Amino acid sequence: MRFPLRLLAAPLTAFVLAFPTTTWAQRVPLPPKDIRLDQLARDTQRTDISDDTLELVWLIPQRYWEASAAQQPTLSDEDRNRFLGQLDGYLLLASVRGEVGIAGIDQFASADVVRDGLRIVDAAGTSHAPLAPEQVPAPLKNLLSVLRPVMANMIGPMGDNMHFVVFASRDAKGRPLFDPLSEGRIQVITSRRAYPFRTPLGSVLPPRLDASTGESFPGDYHYNPYTGGALKDVAQPH
Questions:
Q1: What pLDDT score was predicted for residue 27?
Q2: What is d(CA 207, CA 186) in angstroms, rounded to the nearest whole number?
Q3: Contact at 8 Å (CB) between 79 and 2?
Q4: Pairing mode of beta strands 127-128, 119-121
Q5: CA–CA separation, 190 vs 64, rounded Å?
Q6: Average pLDDT per run of 10 along the chain, which is 238 residues long?
Q7: What is the DSSP string of 46-59?
Q8: How far is CA 64 from the centre of its chain?
Q9: What distance in Å separates the CA atoms of residue 238 and residue 236, rounded to the nearest whole number?
Q10: How far is CA 31 from CA 74, 177, 182, 204, 206, in A?
Q11: Rounded distance between C-alpha atoms, residue 8 and residue 170, angstroms
């Protein structure tokens, strides 16, 4: 299988420098082929620069992989399913931390430092630790080993020092830790700070329209932020 992983890394270059409710259950999500990967990457990344240190975390949902695969027309259905199967049941988090100096960002943190204290707090308030390296299956380990040199080629030292951490994608009751389509709020906790993520993500939903002004807004908006006018779903082609 040949999966062009440059598509995964590309959105990052532009960024570096609870439970479902009836309201959202009625929304029809965008097909994976129509999702803007750069927008989904922005929705799922957080960064902090403080105390002369930059930290970036990227929580990568399965929806991102599905969209990446769907938007590669040369990929066969068999290879697409095989690729997605390697990621099924797992939630990846990518993180990089480095000191900011006169010459740029250097003195990057090791994988052990990045993992220290790392956890996800889900919409129910339950804390989840990442899988130990020995718990990650070999096919997924192989995939992650390929991603780092791809990142290095795309964004240089930051990509070479980006570490991928694996979580189980569901809790003990089978509920997803991070569902881009459900309404809720989760947090990624590092040894430095907490990063909130609110769902649903606008990038996986069709845009919404203010009929009175003709303005279009991300799919997770309820109201026009400038006028307060209620937004409506934009009719999608069948």
A1: 64
A2: 23
A3: yes
A4: antiparallel
A5: 22
A6: 50 41 58 94 94 93 94 92 93 93 83 95 95 94 85 79 94 94 94 96 92 88 88 68
A7: EEEEETTEEEEEEE
A8: 7
A9: 6
A10: 18, 21, 16, 8, 9
A11: 23
Task: Name the strands in the sheet holding 215-217, side by side, starting at the edge strand that comes first in the sequence.
Answer: 215-217, 208-210, 232-233
Position 108 scores a pLDDT of 92
Look-up of token digits 């949902």: 61
**Residue 189: both structure tokens together:** 């906790």
Give the type of residue at 110: S
- CA 155/CA 41 separation, integer angstroms: 15
The upper half-sphere exposure of residue 215, i.e. CA atoms within 13 Å in the direction of its Cβ, equals 14
Look at residues 46, 53, 155 and name the one whose alpha carbon lies nearest to residue 107.
53
Look-up: residue for tokens 């937004």? 231
The count of residues in the chain is 238
Sequence letter at residue 18:
A
> Strands, E, within 107-151: which ranges?
119-121, 127-128
**CB–CB of 233/221 below 8 Å?**
no
CB atoms within 10 A of CB 121: 17
Amino acid at 57: V
Contacts of 237 (CB under 8 A, 6+ apart): none
Give the model's pLDDT for residue 2.
47
Write the CA distances from 51 to 55, 96, 101, 148, integer angstroms.
11, 15, 11, 26
| Amino acid, res. 12 | L
Measured torsion, CA atoms of residues 127, 139, 201, 203, in degrees rounded to the nearest 10 = 160
- For the record, the structure tokens of 177 come out as 């830790």
Domain locations along the chain: 6-201, 206-238
